[in-house]
Amino acid sequence: MPSYDFRCKQCGRPFSHFYKSVKDYEAGTGLTCPHCGSTDVARRIRRVAIPRPSRDLSQLSPNEMLSVMNSDNPREVGTMFQQVMESAGGDLGEMGSTVQEATDRLLRGESIDSVEGDLASRDSTPTADD
Ligand SMILES: [Zn+2]
Asked: How far is the CA of 73 from the centre of ligand 1 (A)?
């Protein structure tokens, strides 16, 4: 699990918190400012430098794509998937339906964690023809 950046609303100082598991992250437990002990903290979103105005997210490097995935912006991630699919001519083989479904859900504003979790649990269980 990655560490996340936070800022304490009490003393205004930034700090990082490393989550040991997704459960910790979802529960938001153990999150206190290491400087003053306040629990009144806010997640800091690391802004990613994405080339504009082209906004061609399919041309991002793997690291940039990861940054988009971590941006907590489902629609941005959905847009990225959509552009990746379009650049592949809409043919992603076996991945196609999975990616399409993820894209649709992200563009509807579903949380990245929820979509990611659902798809991951289905990993390596290819479906028959549909
Ligand atoms: Zn503090």
From this structure: 27
Q: Where are the domains positioned within the chain?
A: 3-43, 57-121
Ligand 1 centre and the CA of 7: distance in Å? Answer: 8
If you measure from the C-alpha of residue 44 to the centroid of ligand 1, how many angstroms do you get, rounded to a whole number?
A: 14
Residues contacting residue 37 through CB under 8 Å, at least 6 positions apart: none
Q: What is the pTM of this model?
A: 0.40
Report CA(72)–ligand 1 centroid distance (Å).
Answer: 24
Strand partners, 32: none
pLDDT 10s per residue in the chain (130 long)?
Answer: 567 888 899 999 998 887 777 676 666 666 889 999 998 888 877 666 655 555 677 777 777 777 777 777 888 888 888 887 777 776 667 667 777 888 888 888 888 888 878 777 765 555 555 5
Tokens of 57: 């997210």
From the CA of 27, how far away is ligand 1's center (Å)? 20
Taking residue 50's Cβ as centre, other Cβ atoms within 10 Å add up to 16
